Amino acid sequence: MGKKSNHLNECLERIRHGDDPVNCLKDYPEEADELRPLLETAVGITKFAMTAQPRPEFIAQTQGILAQEYYLAHYSWKAKIAGWLKPKVRLAKIATVSIVILALVFISGFSLSIVASEDAMPGEILYPIKLATEQVRLFFSFSDDGKVGYLTKYAETRIAEIIYAIEHEDDAHAEAALKRLERQLDTVGRIANPSNTPRAMAASEQESLILQEIENIVNESLKEINEKLLEIKALESEKKEEIIDRIEKAYAEAIESIESARAESSIIPYE
Questions:
Q1: Which pLDDT does position 151 carry in this prediction?
Q2: Of 16 and 147, which is predicted with more confidence?
């Protein structure tokens, strides 16, 4: 975990000094899948920071909020008893905080209009802030069902972005949004079934309830996107069938991972 965290910090520092993220990904090919979305977000923040002129009082207020949330996440009594965090999860949290810190350096406080960025679409100036905000919200979500709730909401948002990009004949942004959706739903599956291997013993009642809640969240999200998939079908695009297939596959794989985890959790070990 230490090496990966150092590699991320090194890449962020290189980007800050003008290096291309592609060079960093080439240097660390085994970590490229984890580093890529984080570095993309950092680059987006950098570009936006060049035009941002936040008010000093808003900077101070935002820095105070982030500092308080960081303390609660890492130094409060709740954080101290949260030893259940797995290494990879902790790496993701460290990485996200690194991006937040990088943003603070770039724009003297990450004082960006989150509300204004929520409706931003690919290619618009506030879109990188929208993605960064999603990462921060995930960082401060400590329950599995909470994370899944955010991730499925983001997946639904990606579909709206795909529709927007196709309508504007922007295949590159449509593909980028689709890949983000696939990564987010893959994360949902890994949250539900992190090891993807049979459990050694039956899950506790609490774990079973969490898995049930995760499955409910994903199924509700699947219902929500059906209308949006019909919108994609109505678009004039040669790739629309492929896009729909990939979206449905991503949801199906997430649900399969959840169902597999629930089935394994109900197995009582042979005595």
A1: 96
A2: 147
Kindly state the tokens that stand for 104: 């603070």
* Residues 96, 54, 177, 147, CA torsion sign: positive
Q: From the centroid of its chain, how far is CA 102?
A: 18
* Tokens coding 1: 């975990």
Task: Give the Cβ contact number of residue 127 at 10 Å.
Answer: 18
Rounded Cα distance, 21 and 40, in Å: 8
Q: Name which of 154, 157, 33, 19 is nearest 95 in CA terms.
A: 33
Q: Provide, for the chain, the percentages of residues in helix, strand and coil under a 3-state DSSP scheme, each rounded to the nearest 5.
A: 75, 0, 25
In three-state secondary structure terms, 225 is helix
CA–CA distance from 182 to each of 69, 218, 233 (Å)? Answer: 29, 14, 19
pLDDT tens string 11-50: 877 877 778 888 888 888 888 887 787 777 777 766 655 5
